[in-house]
Structures are given as structure tokens and as C-alpha cells.
Specification:
The complex is a heterodimer of chains A (105) and B (249). With 105 residues, chain A is an alpha+beta fold. Helices cover 67% and strands 15% of the residues of chain A. Chain B has a single domain, classed as Spore Coat Polysaccharide Biosynthesis Protein SpsA, Chain A, CATH 3.90.550. The longest helix of chain B is centred in the N-terminal third of the chain and has 16 residues. Classes of the chains: A alpha+beta (105), B alpha/beta (249). The interface between A and B is medium-sized, with 24 and 23 residues.
């Protein structure tokens, strides 16, 4: 390997790192969803919270939206379903993109 | 309840914003599927290509502001509240390329005023760091989602007041940029209207392509950019493009 190869490898790595970073940022952005007039992030934390409260607490219960407003959740089943659908839809897309990076290295 | 997009478009002797509008408005119509209102002047209106159904509001824009010693017609943003015909308005900078329907999520909430407080440089260079340029965190007035409420009206009225007394507010908040910037005007207005305490904003960052990145290709699905011998592509995500050369790609 000469210096030009090192340079090429470095540029290629930069490109992959940037694409990965942008894909992750895109995924995070797409995880935001609106429900009953409030914004929620369909991430593992929200899914776990709603699932736990729905199992261990009687409905309705209250959670905070992304702007820290309290929201009454009367039907956790519907919210949970929406959160999981959104989460997996986004992560599925991210996974497809991520697979391309693995082959590029 | 009506929802629509509002944009401002005023050509200058240096930049052809009508050509940027010809790229971004079809994207908004295609991906958001809502009505668009373009606030412009007669001179720019005459140069705009046919864009399908668009509401045009012709105004005499205020002049006098500059950026990099070039005219910058950004002094009328505070009028958006009164000019907007919609119950919920998605107020966008003209150089915001809307490749997704994501903004509809923000229009679908009870929040009456949403704005970004975080920016994300998609070139990975972290070009935007303004912590040392003022004692107030800057907001990004590129995307504002507002409803016709009393609070939202007060915010826009406050922006007008700040614009008229910008020198004073620059000193008060020790803002380095002496030319009028809506980003700071909205930051100050929200700071004051919300009781001088930090409040929550749009929960994700504003994806931005900085001025150093030159757009070399544009189509309805993506933007290709070049910077320092590197090339990148933006697709399936909205992006705020600073390079005004995008008008001619």
C-alpha cells in the first residue's frame, strides 16, 4: 500500500461514516409520531414505558410527550401498536441501509 | 381546520429566488400534499414559472438588511401570522427542500408554535456552532409550524418589535451578528414570551447542507453535493440548502 491507497481508504471510510451518521439521524427523525395531538418518539424507552404501564397499571394512565406535556392514555393498546409499527418501519429501513455499509468496507 | 405551507420569495440583484421556488414548491406540493401560499413582490412574481395551484400574496417588501454586503429581504417574516390564510401554517424558508411528508407530523399536534433549536450538518463537519456568538441559544427560523392562537400572534408581534429595535436587543443579548436575523428575533421573542426560561422545541434537528457544500445535481428525489473533493447525496430526508447556487443546477 502506498500513500495514495491510504488516502483512498481514508476517504472511503469518511464516506461510509458520514452515510451511517446521516442514516441514523434520518431514522431518529422519522421515529417522531403524532398521537392525539401530541408528539412521541417511537423508541425503545417509550414502547417499554407504555407496555409496562399497560400491564401493571389500570387505564387510563399518564405519560409525557416529547415536550413534557402530560398525556392521558385511555387506550394503551392502540398507542402501543402505533409505536411498534413506527419503530419497526423506521428500523427496517435503517437496517436495509446499514447492510449496504457492511459490503462497502 | 386548514393546513398549508407559506413561503417568502424576493429576488435580489445577486440571487434568483424564483428559480429556487421553481424547485422547492413542487416538492412541497408532491410530498406534503397541502396548499402553498407564496408571499412575493410583483418583480419576482413576473419571473416565476407556472407552478400549478399556488396562492400568491403580493406585498411591498421591506428593504435595508444585508448579508455579506448583499441585500437580504428577510424583514417581513413577522407578517406571516396576519398573511397566512390557514389555521395551521407550516412556514418554510424557500431553500427548504421537502423530500418527505415529515412536517405533517408537526402540524398534527396541539402545539401552537414549533421551531427547531438544533441543527444537523449533513456533511459531518459540524459547521454550526453559535454558542459563543450570543448569550441566548439561537433558534432556526427555517421551519416554523404555528396555529392561529393568541400566543402565536404575540410571538410574531414580538418579532416585529424586536426587528424595530434590533440594535438594542443585539446589545442586550450580546449577539455578534449585527444584521437582522429571524433566527435570533424568534429566539428572543420566545425567550421573552415564555418567561425567560428554556422551553421545548421541535424534538429533532434541522438537517442542513452548509454554504461550503455546493449542490451539483437536483431532481425530485435527491440532491447531490460536493465539498472539498467529497461527494454526498441527500434523499428521503428534508434538507435546508444554504448554497444559493442551487437555483442554477
Amino acid at each position: 500500500m502506498d500513500i495514495n491507497d491510504f488516502k483512498k481508504q481514508s476517504e472511503k471510510s469518511y464516506g461510509i461514516a458520514l452515510a451511517k451518521q446521516n442514516a441514523l439521524e434520518k431514522a431518529k427523525s422519522k421515529m417522531i409520531m403524532a398521537y392525539e395531538g401530541h408528539l412521541f418518539l417511537a423508541n425503545a424507552e417509550t414502547i417499554n414505558l407504555v407496555k409496562t404501564l399497560s400491564e401493571l397499571h389500570t387505564s387510563p394512565f399518564y405519560i409525557l410527550d416529547t415536550n413534557d406535556n402530560p398525556v392521558e392514555i385511555a387506550d394503551p393498546k392502540i398507542l402501543l401498536e402505533k409505536l411498534i409499527t413506527k419503530n419497526q418501519e423506521v428500523l427496517n429501513t435503517y437496517h436495509e441501509t446499514y447492510k449496504q455499509f457492511a459490503t462497502l468496507r | 381546520m386548514t393546513t398549508g405551507v407559506m413561503m417568502y420569495c424576493f429576488n435580489t440583484e445577486f440571487y434568483r429566488y424564483d428559480k429556487i421556488a421553481a424547485k422547492t414548491i413542487p416538492l412541497v406540493k408532491k410530498n406534503l400534499g397541502v396548499e402553498v401560499t407564496l408571499v412575493t413582490n410583483m418583480e419576482t412574481y413576473k419571473l416565476l414559472p407556472p407552478l400549478g395551484f399556488v396562492n400568491y400574496i403580493l406585498i411591498d417588501h421591506e428593504t435595508g438588511n444585508q448579508i455579506d454586503r448583499k441585500p437580504w429581504h428577510n424583514l417581513d417574516r413577522h407578517r406571516a401570522y396576519n398573511l397566512s390564510p390557514y389555521d395551521t401554517t407550516i412556514l418554510l424558508d424557500l431553500d427548504y427542500f421537502c423530500f418527505t411528508d415529515h412536517l405533517l407530523t408537526y402540524a398534527n399536534t396541539n402545539e401552537d408554535f414549533l421551531i427547531h433549536d438544533k441543527v444537523y450538518d449533513i456533511t459531518g463537519k459540524d459547521s454550526y456552532e453559535f454558542r459563543n456568538n450570543s448569550i441566548i441559544p439561537m433558534l432556526w427560523a427555517t421551519v416554523i409550524v404555528f396555529k392561529k392562537t393568541d400566543r402565536a400572534k404575540k410571538i410574531f408581534d414580538m418579532v416585529k418589535y424586536i426587528k424595530e429595535n434590533y440594535g438594542y436587543f443585539c446589545s442586550l443579548y450580546r449577539i455578534d451578528f449585527k444584521n437582522f436575523r429571524n433566527d435570533y428575533a424568534f429566539a428572543i421573542a420566545l425567550h421573552q414570551m415564555d418567561g425567560m426560561v428554556p422551553t421545548k422545541k421541535i424534538p429533532v434537528s434541522l438537517p442542513t447542507l452548509p454554504a461550503q457544500a455546493k449542490v451539483v445535481k437536483f431532481d425530485q428525489e435527491s440532491i447531490v453535493w460536493e465539498m472539498e473533493d467529497k461527494t454526498g447525496i441527500v434523499y428521503d430526508t428534508d434538507v435546508h440548502v444554504i448554497d444559493k447556487g442551487v437555483a442554477h443546477v
